[in-house]
UniProtKB/TrEMBL annotation:
Its EC number is 2.1.2.2. This is Phosphoribosylglycinamide formyltransferase. One of its GO terms (biological process) is 'de novo' IMP biosynthetic process. Keywords: Purine biosynthesis, Transferase. The gene is purN. N(1)-(5-phospho-beta-D-ribosyl)glycinamide binds at G18, S19, N20. Catalyzes the transfer of a formyl group from 10-formyltetrahydrofolate to 5-phospho-ribosyl-glycinamide (GAR), producing 5-phospho-ribosyl-N-formylglycinamide (FGAR) and tetrahydrofolate. Belongs to the GART family. PROSITE patterns: GART. The keyword Transferase applies. It is an enzyme of class 2 (transferase). The record marks D152 as: Raises pKa of active site His. GO terms for molecular function: phosphoribosylglycinamide formyltransferase activity. It catalyses: N(1)-(5-phospho-beta-D-ribosyl)glycinamide + (6R)-10-formyltetrahydrofolate = N(2)-formyl-N(1)-(5-phospho-beta-D-ribosyl)glycinamide + (6S)-5,6,7,8-tetrahydrofolate + H(+).
């Protein structure tokens, strides 16, 4: 069910500062946006993105994963309850540093998106910028993709390229890729919502 303005209801999962989350919220608050971020959920109560989301008028909750130990399913059941209560239609991962169980991935099949800081299928997982530099790549970038059970293996929705400079470090490259992420993710999410939910 869309909200009264016909916008797709998006929830964002974060673990940290939430800069991509903020970009999604801002884009979703534009008058012509096809989606709106209605909920932010973090597995870390200290995540800086929670305060940012609330300051932008978005409901934000923390469900600390630590008391659950290895019980990922128990933690995800509470996350899912929040998603359902918010009448979420699309879930967007934005720096969510938890591997999702097949149960949650299956529950949101074809409605769960992520942004990854490499040009997939190159460099799934962590340390993408250091790996790109070590390989001598001339181009790096980011990818928005659907989430499947495999790590960073889902269908690609959009990509943006960033040139690798001669004196780049992992830090300097990551900063430019992050800027590209902030532009790509809202655009890709908007297109996906239109394609997925509008006739």
């Amino acid at each position: 069910m869309n909200d009264t303005r016909g916008r797709v209801r998006v929830a964002v999962l974060i673990s940290g500062a939430g800069s991509n989350m903020a970009a999604l919220i801002d884009a979703g608050q534009r008058p012509d946006a096809p989606y709106e971020v209605v909920l932010v959920v973090s597995n870390d109560p200290d995540a800086g993105g929670l305060a940012i989301a609330r300051a932008k008028g978005v409901a934000a909750v923390a469900i600390d994963h630590r008391p659950f130990g290895k019980d990922r399913a128990g933690h995800e059941a509470l996350v899912q309850a929040q998603l359902a209560a918010a009448e979420t239609q699309i879930v967007a991962l934005a720096g969510y540093m938890r591997l999702l169980t097949p149960w949650l991935v299956g529950r949101w099949a074809d409605r769960l998106v992520n942004i990854h800081p490499s040009l997939l299928p190159r460099y799934p997982g962590l340390d993408t910028h250091a790996r790109a530099l070590a390989a001598g790549d001339s181009v790096a970038g980011c990818t928005v993709h659907l989430v499947t059970e495999g790590v960073d293996e889902g269908p690609i929705l959009a990509q943006a390229q960033v040139s690798v400079l001669k004196d780049d470090t992992p830090t300097s490259l990551s900063q430019r890729v992050l800027a590209a992420e902030h532009a790509l993710y809202p655009e890709a999410l908007a297109r996906f919502c239109i394609d997925r939910f509008r006739p």
